[in-house]
Amino acid sequence: MNNQMEVLVKKIDYLYQKIEDIIDERSEKQMDFLLSEIDKHRTSLLELEIQEQYKEIENETDSSQ
């Protein structure tokens, strides 16, 4: 896992922890914000994972030729 992916995972973990911190407060706006941030970072992480997989596929294809 590259550094950029590790940073995203740490951010996501942090955001989940914040949800745990505020879950009893029943603050809908805060929860919506945190969930939105999690979604944004998970999407970025997914993009990076897909890019890595594409690179692997391309390298496999290049090496088999």
Description:
The chain has 65 residues and is mainly alpha-helical. It is 88% helix and 0% strand. The chain has two helices and no strands. The chain has helices at residues 3-22, 28-64. The longest helix is centred in the last third of the chain and has 37 residues, at 28-64. It is elongated. The chain starts with a helix and ends with a helix. The mean pLDDT is 92.
Task: List key phrases describing it.
65 residues; mainly alpha
Low-confidence stretches: none
What's the Cα radius of gyration?
A: 17 Å
Strand content: under 5%
**Mean pLDDT across residues:** 92
- Estimate the global geometry from the Cα principal axes: elongated
Structure summary, number of beta strands: 0
Report on the biggest sheet: none
Number of helices: 2
From the N-terminal CA to the C-terminal CA, the straight-line distance is 27 Å
Pairing-aware structural class of the strands and helices? mainly alpha
Order of helices and strands: HH
- Helical content band: over 70%
